[in-house]
Amino acid sequence: MEDSDIVDLYFSRSERAIQETGSKYHAYLTQIAFNILRSRSDTEEIVNDTYFAAWNSIPPARPNSLKYYLSRITRNLSLTRLDYLLAGKRHALEVELDECVQYGQDRGENMCEDRELAAILNSFLGSLDRRSCAIFLARYYYGYQISEIAEKYDLSERQAKYSLSKSRAALRTTLEKEGV
Amino acid sequence: MTGKRLLNTLSFADEKYLALVESEIAGKAVHVKAARKNRFYRRRLCTVVLAAILILALSVTAYAVVSVNRQRQEELRDSLGAEEKAPAYVEYQVSDETAPGITLLSAVNSGEYQRVYTAICPVSAEELNLDVQQPYEFSIDGGENWLSAFVVPDSYDEESQSLVLSCGFHTNGLSAGTNIDLQIRLPFTDPVRDYGKISLSITDPDMRLICFAKPVEAVFPVTGQTVYLQGVELRGECAVWILKTENTEDLFGQYNREWANYTDELVRTAKLELSNGSSVSCSGVLTFEEKSGALYLNAPYQEKIINTADVVSILIAEATITAESFGG
């Protein structure tokens, strides 16, 4: 079933919307949640919560791409759950991205709006070559482990790490340039 | 600003970029298979050859016991491509015994970024299998800020219960010789596993500034403007190319992508020829900086750490600059 048809089902408040979403995107969403949480039981809950959140938000939302709309929900729910599970301790993805911000800086200063930061991040993603952009998002959006990225893109782990470190350095430069 | 906020805001990544994650894999599918097959045969051949060499070695000579940390130093040197006498690559004295706490193995400074390789001990099998990607953290400011330390793959030694970590940080103006205390901890255990601290100095990035007697001219094809390559600051791990051109605002705005590709290509095709007859090239521009009207393009070498004094000539933009014509 096409995404637009599934969205129409949500709009007509048909419960089939959930079934169709599940049959089309269950594996995709499970992968995202599992990558971040690395726990089967939590993953299952998060994917179910994603369906529930989609049911509550469509309408009024009418996503252009149902797939990425759902992926954002799953990702956000997974990151929130991870925060809870780690009880405030930072996890690896956060720590790696800390590299991109001034070391020792920021205790609230240089804050900009989420929308502004999102625009900077999108412009940064656009400045990367396709491969580096894919690898960066595979790690920091989808939460794949380095070994999994290396396998996916036919790289050695060293090459994958190098690509990520190069992108993080470029992001750091972009953020510094933007004064964020 | 924190890594956490960046991570959360990435949820707003544009869909066209998210689509790349899959399309870039799909595009590779066919030759990945072929590459894997080739790799399989290469590995198999390597295994047979290595086995033969090992049997031969064992049959003719006594097996020399090398401490695990010395062996690690050799492996790190190989993997980083460090030349024997590269001043930017420092190897620390290690003893045959693996002591609890932190042992310094080696360090390399690229000018703005210092990496320190350490072995930590003890690391239990349970800690090793924690379900966290990079669980170890380090601090160089007395524990105020903690950064992620990277576990060197396959570096765990069961016998000594030790593991190799790479701790990388921006030097933020700290010059070579400045003393720092490196602390390492594993925060994911209860109580937090503290590996203590160790003092070390910021290492020498081995900088050698070469100003070309006459700037090398190149043309940025998109706008037709001339780019003047004025020199290069050689460092052990990277080269910083210095160039001047006009309308840099356009280059970083309107032509940002084309300019990035052009400079990447420019430094990638450049070659540094060494006194031993070999040559080194750069892997592309990692970062750039504009100051005093000049652009500084930082380009790491391709898995190589050199002695900058060994560079005898430079090939860039179809020009060759020999040692005799090196300026200051």
What does this protein structure show overall?
- The complex is a heterodimer of chains A (180) and B (328).
- By secondary structure, chain A is an all-alpha fold.
- Chain A folds into two domains: 3-85, Rna Polymerase Sigma Factor, Chain: A (Orthogonal Bundle); 94-177, Winged helix-like DNA-binding domain superfamily/Winged helix DNA-binding domain (Arc Repressor Mutant, subunit A, Orthogonal Bundle).
- Helix content of chain A is 72%, strand content 0%.
- Chain A has nine helices and no strands.
- With 328 residues, chain B is α+β, with helices and mostly antiparallel strands.
- Chain B has three domains: 18-52; 68-201, Immunoglobulin-like; 208-325.
- Chain B has helices at 3-9, 15-60, 68-80, 125-128, 248-252, 256-268, and strands spanning 89-91, 101-109, 113-121, 137-139, 147-148, 150-151, 163-170, 179-186, 193-201, 208-220, 225-234, 238-244, 271-274, 279-280, 287-291, 294-300, 311-316, 319-322.
- In chain B, the strands form four sheets. In chain B, strands 1-2-3-7-6 form a five-stranded antiparallel β-sheet, covered by helices on one side. In chain B, strands 10-11-12-16-15 form a five-stranded antiparallel β-sheet, with helices on one face. In chain B, strands 5-4-8-9 form a four-stranded antiparallel β-sheet, with no helix packed on it.
- Chains A and B meet through helix 4, helix 5, helix 6, helix 7 and helix 9 of A and helix 1, helix 2, strand 5, helix 6 and strand 15 of B.
Question: What are its keywords?
Answer:
A: mainly alpha, Rna Polymerase Sigma Factor, Chain: A, Arc Repressor Mutant, subunit A, 2 domains, 9 helices, 72% helix, B: alpha+beta, Immunoglobulin-like, 3 domains, five-stranded antiparallel sheet, 6 helices
